[in-house]
């Protein structure tokens, strides 16, 4: 409950025990949740950090007000020094008694951080209206070494007049420099504030974390915590002060994903909640590298599990549940959420797996909100070749059916345990042609990954039919995702697919080679290898019109 006067300073006129300077403890700074102090520009070395506390919000004696508790954690330089620290309990159960805590801490990079964090274990029944987070009366940091920077003593011999003139001139110059610095700083701050307000106006005000907290969580964005890299930037594993593991997405300064895409990702994922969509914990808008903070998913991406260097042997029930989970997530985005969302970049690398191998759709930087009243939206093409629907790649016509097409590709990759383009076997270069050849020869089960010794043939055949329906050339021939879910679960029968897409026939007529399967729109290599330039041909007319929106 907010304090009546809205102040973060509390006062007391009482005398304090266990101290010779009672005046020092008569006021204290407090916060409902977190207090953070920074020492900037300090000389590197070991310092003695002294923190002084005294509880006076809860009086001694047997009364309702005396039942309150103030419990918080103390972090210095990102290291927890005290857990569940209770000022009054440390003082022997007495209020108005000074408590001192001292720590020897290293200062590196000329930076010191002291963080008092409410751990959620304090009073549950507030005695009086006010704040019951961390509180502190005084703090200091004293170097345990002789500083190398000292004030130079004025020379005894010299002209007093010259010294006065020098001081005046120096002060004048310093004043001008300070004025200029303040002016530049205010302009930059104003510009940054306007930029942040612009982002806030787009996405509202999500849970904003400080850059310092995320830097500490990722060990200063250590390479040891790097989970992956792409055209957008890098993703790091981190651990917040409350113990949660997170994935911190750091947008690169060179990334083509601008503020609008960054804001879109925050806005979209903040407004949709589903067990098969990755959760957004918060963001950081400080500096030139905006950060997104997601839940950490232990088993990485689906493409890594299926055909990465450390690929795992996913059994058939797990693969089927992954396909079904992704279908449910897309069905929610297209038909069930309060806003209609087209993801635009469904692919194996954007499907993450949690500890139980449940799939979660991630990376909403290219997502578009879709109007039910429009048949389609014309937009610049963005995404990854090999997953792009023909009408989208050729004309930029965007409907939810482009996600359906990409989902069909992911299902085929999951069934076969291989990317949609591969040079390992000349007869199986493109997964579409290979699967259709087997399907027309009545050998559809030959698609299944050889590593799967056991599988449910009925489920596999059902998944193949669904994938072939989803990758039809015309968007009108592709089913909505709700029907895809029903067909996969067996609630609706999956029909036999009799129409081979025209784009496959076109490849075969023109020689069967195309770069469609292997090139990322952003110019980044996809998980599939790129064909040799001496043998690759662009044989599909809708490829030449594809343009790079920036990824």
From TrEMBL:
Its EC number is 2.7.11.1. GO terms for cellular component: plasma membrane. It is an enzyme of class 2 (transferase). PROSITE patterns: PROTEIN_KINASE_ATP, PROTEIN_KINASE_DOM, PROTEIN_KINASE_ST. Residues 221-497 form the Protein kinase domain. Its main location: membrane. It is a single-pass membrane protein. GO terms for molecular function: ATP binding; protein serine/threonine kinase activity. Residues 515-551 are annotated as: Disordered. Signal peptide: none annotated. Keywords: ATP-binding, Glycoprotein, Kinase, Membrane, Nucleotide-binding, Phosphoprotein, Receptor, Repeat, Serine/threonine-protein kinase, Signal, Transferase, Transmembrane, Transmembrane helix. This is non-specific serine/threonine protein kinase.
């Amino acid at each position: 409950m907010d304090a009546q006067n809205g102040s973060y300073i509390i006062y007391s006129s009482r005398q304090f025990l266990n101290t010779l300077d009672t005046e020092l403890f008569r006021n204290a700074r407090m916060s409902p949740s977190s207090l953070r102090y920074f020492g900037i520009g300090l000389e590197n070395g070991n310092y003695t950090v002294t923190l002084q506390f005294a509880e006076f919000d809860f009086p001694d004696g047997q009364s309702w007000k005396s039942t309150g508790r103030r419990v918080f954690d103390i972090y210095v330089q990102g290291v927890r020094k005290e857990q569940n620290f209770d000022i009054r309990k440390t003082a022997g159960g007495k209020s108005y008694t000074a408590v001192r805590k001292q720590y020897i801490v290293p200062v590196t990079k000329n930076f010191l951080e002291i963080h008092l964090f409410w751990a959620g274990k304090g009073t549950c029944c507030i005695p009086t209206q006010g704040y019951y987070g961390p509180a502190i009366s005084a703090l200091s940091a004293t170097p345990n070494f002789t500083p190398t920077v000292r004030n130079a003593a004025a020379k005894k011999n010299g002209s007093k007049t010259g010294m006065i003139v020098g001081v005046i001139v120096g002060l004048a110059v310093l004043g001008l420099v300070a004025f200029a610095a303040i002016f530049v700083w205010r302009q930059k701050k104003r510009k940054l504030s306007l930029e942040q307000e612009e982002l806030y106006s787009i996405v509202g005000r999500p849970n904003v974390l400080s850059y310092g907290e995320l830097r500490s969580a990722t060990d200063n964005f250590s390479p040891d915590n790097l989970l992956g890299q792409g055209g957008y930037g890098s993703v790091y594993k981190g651990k917040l002060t409350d113990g949660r593991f997170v994935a911190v997405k750091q947008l690169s300064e060179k990334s083509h994903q601008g503020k609008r895409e960054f804001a879109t990702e925050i806005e979209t994922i903040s407004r949709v909640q589903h067990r098969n969509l990755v959760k957004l914990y918060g963001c950081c808008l400080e500096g030139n590298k905006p950060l997104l903070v997601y839940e950490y998913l232990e088993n990485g991406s689906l493409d890594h599990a299926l055909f990465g260097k450390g690929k795992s042997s996913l059994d058939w029930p797990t693969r089927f549940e992954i396909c079904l989970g992704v279908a449910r997530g897309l069905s929610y985005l297209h038909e069930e959420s309060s806003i209609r969302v087209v993801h635009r970049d469904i692919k194996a690398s954007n499907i993450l797996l949690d500890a139980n191998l449940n799939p979660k759709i991630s990376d909403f930087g290219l997502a578009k909100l879709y109007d039910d009243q429009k048949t389609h939206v014309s937009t610049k093409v963005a995404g990854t070749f090999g997953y792009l629907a023909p009408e989208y790649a050729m004309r930029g016509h965007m409907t939810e059916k482009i996600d359906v097409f990409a989902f069909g590709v992911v299902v085929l990759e999951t069934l076969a345990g291989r990317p949609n383009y591969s040079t390992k076997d000349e007869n199986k270069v493109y997964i579409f042609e290979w699967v259709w050849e087997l399907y027309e020869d009545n050998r559809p089960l030959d698609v299944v990954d050889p590593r799967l010794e056991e599988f449910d043939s009925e489920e596999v055949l059902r998944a193949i039919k669904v994938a072939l329906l989803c990758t039809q050339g015309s968007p009108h021939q592709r089913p909505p995702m709700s029907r895809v879910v029903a067909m996969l679960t067996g609630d609706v029968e999956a029909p036999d697919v009799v129409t081979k897409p025209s784009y496959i026939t076109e490849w075969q007529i023109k020689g069967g080679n195309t770069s469609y399967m292997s090139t990322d729109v952003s110019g980044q290599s996809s998980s599939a290898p790129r064909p040799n330039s001496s043998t690759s041909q662009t044989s599909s007319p809708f490829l030449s019109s594809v343009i790079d929106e920036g990824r």
